[in-house]
Backbone:
């Protein structure tokens, strides 16, 4: 188990932290834009950067341990294989007397185990780098966007393998990325970092549905962010911004005032017709202003006085005949409207 | 216009090439092989060549042992006064070597502290091989240090970091990763330094006229007996230096190509 208590580090004018969190045997993804301090955090955990605060690994304080004493595997953006050693020699570097044959088999390295590392493809190089890191029997594995430069298919295959091997070995992993889709698909838990500070920490679905603030909402792909007034009218609370009016719940459920709200795109329903059973929904009428195919789904933007975006499966889009210019009803549950600041 | 430009460049470059090659060729080709053979059989010449080669190797060995760590520091760390230190290391390249010899005499002469200390353990630098080595090392070490520094700088520092995450100490990371990846620079720097060492005259002659190194011997013969007497020795030393230099460069160039 890794514990960070008030960890603080700096580089130039940038300051990381204070950062505190605990992690168990899980796949933790640290998500953030460039310059958020993600790589610096990994440097601190691995011992390459001095820091204030305390770091514990499996109950032992390692704050002042040099990197070689920490038993923390580190995969950087480049595979960084030792160019004067072949594949096996690379993997054996930190293995000591440990048997590496099962690792080689598991990571499908056998076919090129005797090759010169300079002749390997990008995917093969990262497999070897991963095997090398795992062969040293680490207590924690750090991944600094190691697969971001691979093509999507290779990346997804290797990431899947990393996750299953980590599960099998009971190995906690901290994976740093700026890609929220990658973060949400891989992480058991996601920490969002911005300007060196943790902005949100939680399960991927919770972060996506309940972003802590506008930055998190936008960074995780939510474009449905609006600014307006929240007021009590009768026994209900309503959000208005001059263009739309949303029922948000009963009086007392929300504070009154001027706020930003976010609506999770996945919780928005589009319908061509109303069945009359939509009492619990805010209903907006609008026109599809943009529909773009994103591979496995459609991104649909509707103009309802405000722009609202959502995602549809190809089947659903076809069933409803969604196309640009089509008039639709947008259904939003009051609980799907979250105040974010 | 382009052709004129290239013509001018080639002509001007050609002048430089002739300037560098002609004296060497003239010395080698203008000396009859029998003169060279006769010279090589002279005991004084042979002894002087062996002495020069040996002292050059000694000076280079000194730089390898003490200069390599310094090159590593300069390549891997930023610290206050680094550029000042770098300038000092390069100083022997720009000062007159006779001045360097005088400066060394002030440190290693028997009347001065360092000289006295070494004298107590039986090492004297004036008129000895030790003095020759010190003079050679002083004026030639920058060639080695700079070559090795550049070589180490070209090795990605992250490779050392990776080695350390795999349990290697900084020392092990240096010997297992950095050194094997920069060995060519060490060899190139060493050969260059050795070649520079054996050709050193100015600093050597002030610390140790005797025993005579090859450059001092050539000077001595020129001063005492004139050009025709100095020429065969000069040609011989030049040929030997060239052969050894090209041989070592060739061997390590091929080894490097195979490794790649």
Residues:
């Amino acid at each position: 188990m890794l514990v960070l208590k008030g960890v603080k580090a700096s580089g130039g004018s940038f300051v990381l932290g204070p950062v505190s969190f605990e992690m168990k045997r899980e796949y933790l993804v640290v998500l953030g834009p460039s310059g958020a301090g993600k790589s610096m955090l990994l440097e601190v955990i691995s011992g390459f950067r001095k820091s204030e605060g305390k770091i514990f690994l499996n109950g032992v304080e390692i704050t002042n341990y040099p990197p070689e004493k920490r038993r923390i595997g580190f995969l950087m953006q480049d595979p960084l294989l030792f160019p004067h050693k072949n594949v096996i020699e690379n993997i054996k570097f930190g293995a000591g007397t440990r048997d590496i044959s099962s690792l080689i088999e598991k990571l499908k390295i056998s076919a090129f185990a005797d090759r010169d590392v300079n002749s390997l493809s990008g995917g093969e190089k990262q497999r070897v780098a991963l095997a090398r890191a795992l062969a040293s029997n680490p207590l924690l594995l750090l991944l600094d966007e190691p697969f971001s430069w691979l093509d999507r298919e290779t990346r997804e295959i290797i990431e899947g393998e990393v996750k299953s091997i980590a599960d099998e070995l009971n190995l906690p992993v901290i994976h740093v990325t700026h890609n929220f889709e990658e973060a949400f698909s891989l992480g058991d838990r996601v920490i969002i970092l911005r300007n060196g500070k943790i902005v949100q920490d939680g399960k991927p679905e919770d972060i996506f549905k309940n972003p802590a603030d506008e930055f998190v909402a936008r960074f995780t792909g939510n474009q449905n962010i609006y600014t307006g007034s929240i007021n009590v009218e009768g026994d209900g609370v309503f959000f208005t911004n001059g263009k739309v009016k949303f029922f948000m719940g009963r009086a007392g459920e929300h504070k009154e005032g001027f706020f930003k709200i976010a609506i999770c795109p996945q919780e928005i329903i589009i319908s061509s017709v109303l069945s009359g059973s939509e009492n619990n929904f805010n209903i907006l009428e609008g026109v599809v202003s943009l529909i773009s195919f994103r591979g496995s789904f459609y991104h649909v933007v509707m103009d309802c006085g405000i722009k609202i975006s959502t995602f549809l499966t190809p089947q659903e889009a076809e069933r409803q005949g969604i196309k640009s210019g089509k008039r639709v009803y947008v259904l939003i549950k009051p609980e799907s409207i979250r105040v974010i600041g | 216009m382009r052709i004129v430009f290239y013509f001018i460049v080639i002509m001007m470059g050609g002048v430089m090439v002739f300037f560098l090659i002609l004296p060497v060729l003239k010395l080698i080709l203008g000396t009859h092989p029998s003169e060279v053979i006769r010279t090589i059989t002279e005991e004084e010449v042979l002894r002087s060549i062996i002495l020069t080669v040996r002292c050059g190797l000694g000076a280079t060995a000194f730089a390898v042992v003490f200069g390599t760590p310094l090159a590593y520091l300069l390549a891997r760390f930023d610290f206050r006064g680094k550029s000042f230190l770098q300038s000092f290391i390069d100083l022997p390249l720009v000062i007159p070597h006779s001045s360097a010899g005088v400066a060394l005499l002030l440190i290693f002469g028997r009347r001065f502290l360092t000289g006295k200390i070494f004298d107590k353990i039986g090492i004297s630098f004036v008129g000895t091989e030790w003095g020759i080595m010190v003079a050679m090392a002083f004026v030639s070490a920058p060639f080695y240090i700079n070559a090795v520094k550049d070589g180490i700088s070209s090795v990605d520092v992250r490779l050392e970091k990776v080695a350390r995450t795999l349990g290697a100490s900084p020392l092990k990371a240096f010997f297992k990763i950095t050194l094997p990846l920069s060995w060519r620079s060490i060899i190139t720097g060493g050969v260059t330094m050795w070649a520079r060492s054996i050709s050193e005259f100015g600093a050597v002659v002030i610390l140790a006229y005797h025993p005579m190194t090859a450059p001092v011997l050539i000077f001595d013969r020129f001063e005492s007996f004139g050009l025709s007497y100095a020429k065969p020795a000069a040609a011989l030393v030049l040929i030997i230096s060239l052969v050894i230099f090209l041989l070592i460069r060739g061997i390590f160039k091929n080894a490097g190509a195979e490794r790649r």
The radius of gyration of chain A is 24 Å. Chain A touches chain B through 23 residues (CB under 8 Å).
